[in-house]
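Worked example 2:
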Amino acid sequence: MNTHAFEKAHQTKLSRQKSKIILFIAIIAAILFVAGYLLSEIVFVIKHVEINELSIYDKNDILNDIGQVEGSSLFFTSFADKKEELKSKYPYITDIKVKRILPGTVSFNVVEDSGSLSINVGSELFLLTKELRVISLLSESLESEKLLGGNVRRINLVTGKVSRCVTGEILEFSEAYITEAVADIYSALVDCGISDRISYIDLTNKFYIKLGYDDRFTIQMGDWKNAVDKVRMFIKVSSELNEDSTGTIDVSATREAIVSLDDF
C-alpha cells in the first residue's frame, strides 16, 4: 500500500471514530435530558405551597390568589407574572421572594410595607417606604388602609422638588440633597424613638428644615447635619417643659436650644 492510500485509510478510520464519539455524546445528552425532564415533571413536582405570616393581609387570600400550582414542575413553573399580579392587587406588598425547596415545596416570602412616609405630588398623596420607594397612591390603597384601621401615622415630606414619582421605583428629587437629608433625619428620629410623633418634615429650604412634633412643637433644625444630636437636644429641652406647652424649639445650633412658646 502506497503512502497516499495509507493516509486515506487512516483519515477514514479517524472520521469513523469521531462519528462514533459524537453519536455516543448525543445519546448520553438525550438520556440526560429525558431523565432531567422526567425528574422535573414527575419526581420534583410542587406538593406544598408555603407563605410567611403577614401583618396586614390575610395569607389565605394570598394563597387563593396564587392558585392551584400543586402538581406543576418545581423547577420550570414561573411565578414572575403571579408576583406582579399580587403586588398590583395588594398595594402594601412591596416584594415577593420565591424559594424552591426539594423535593416539592415552594415557599413565598411576602414583604409588606404600608409606608413610613408620604408626599404630595400635585393634588395626589403618594405613600413611600423609609427608603423613598413609591408604594402607591393613597386613593388606590383605601381598601388596604381599612385593614389597618385608619391608624397609620406617616411623616409627610414637604418639598416642591419632585422630579420623578413612579410606583415601585425610588422617588427622585430635582435637588440631590433631599434624599440624603431625609435618610439622615428619619434615621435620627428612629434612633431617638420619636419617629411616630413627627407629622411632617419640611425640606423646602435645606438650611431651614422644620419638623412638626405632636401638633405641639415646630422643630427648627437648620440643615440636616448632626441630626441625631439635634433630635436629642430637642427631646431633652421639650421634656423639661409643661405637657401643654406649644411653640417652636430651635436646635440648629446643636449646643443650645432657643425656645419660643406660644402665648395663651
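The chain has six helices and 14 strands. The longest helix spans residues 3-43.
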